[in-house]
Every structure is written in structure tokens, then in C-alpha cells.
Amino acid sequence: MDPIKRAPWDLTSDVTPAIEVRAAVGDGSLSKVLRLVGSFDDLESEAPPPRRSSAKDWAKLIDRIREAAAHTREVEAQAHEQELRVQDLLDRAREDIQAAAERVRAADARAAEMEARTEKLLKSADERVTAAEERARVAEEWLARVYDTISHEFVVEPGTKQVPR
Fold first, then answer.
1. In angstroms, rounded to a whole number, what is the distance separating the alpha carbons of residues 139 and 132?
2. Most buried residue, 15, 36, 126, 130, by CB count within 10 Å?
3. Closest by CA position to 37, among listed 2, 81, 73, 87
4. Could you tell me if 40 and 3 are in contact, meaning their C-beta atoms sit under 8 angstroms apart?
């Protein structure tokens, strides 16, 4: 019989050697397996595990199944609670996004209103500037006329001195 098939497979007490044994067998290196397992004399001296199970073993198995079921229910309850929390967070995030979108729309509306008011104010200011420029042009024309009139009407001869009064 193959030495690997005769090896005891109850390695529940130490998981790491079982992994190493499987890895060594997978590599095809039998010497590593022999070092991990030990000598063949030790293997032959151990008694094979009993094939029949006692009522005590079945009770232990049932207890382990119950523990596993309880643990499963506990994990499911935690998962359900976490789902509820995630759903709540998603709902809040959606509400926050909707509120932010509403704030953006309101800000856009205010910006459009301010732009319209600014355009109106700029147009009004431009009209006032145009009117002021026209008044300044007319005033300059009148000032030039007054200067021309004064300079033609009050001619001062170069040799004559005027006495201040």
C-alpha cells in the first residue's frame, strides 16, 4: 500500500502540517512528506481511527451543528442590520444630493436674476454716461462761444495799460 494512503488524515489538532503535507505532495517531493509526517514505523504503530461512531460523537456533532446554525443566524442578523444601516445611509445621501441640487438651482436662479439686474444697471449707467457726455459737449460749445465773444468784444491793445479798479 502507498505510504501516503496509510497516513492518518486526522490533522485537526494542527492545521499547518496538513497544509504543508498537501503542498509537499503536490510538489511531488516525497522526502518533504516523510520529514513532515515522521518515520513509517510511527505510522504503523498508530491505530486507525474507529469506523463506528458512538452516541457521544453524534451528540457532539449535533451540538456543533446547532452552534454553527446559531452563528449563522447571528451573522445573518448582523448582515441584515448592516444592510439597514447602508440603506439608511443611501437614503440620506440621496436626500443630501437632492438638497444640494435644489441649492444649485436656487443659486443659478439668483445668479441669473443678478445678471439681469446688472445688465439693466449697466444699460442705465451707459445711458447716463452718454447723456453726460452730450451735456459736456454742449457746455464746451457754449464755453467756446462765450470765450470767442469776450475776446472779440473786449479787445485789448498791446500798448495800452489797463488800470485795475
1. 10
2. 36
3. 2
4. yes
CA distance 38 to 15: 16
The pLDDT tens digits for 14-27 are 444 444 444 444 44
Contact 38, 3 (CB under 8 A): no
The count of other CB atoms within 10 Å of the CB of residue 130 is: 10
Place of cell 472779440: 152
Cell 437632492 found at: 98
**Size of the chain in residues:** 165
CA 116, 122, 125, 129 torsion-angle sign: negative
Q: What is the pLDDT of residue 53?
A: 73
72, pLDDT greater than 80: yes
Distance, CA of 48 to CA of 10 (rounded, Å): 10
Asked if residue 26 lies in contact with residue 67, where contact means CB atoms within 8 angstroms, the answer is no
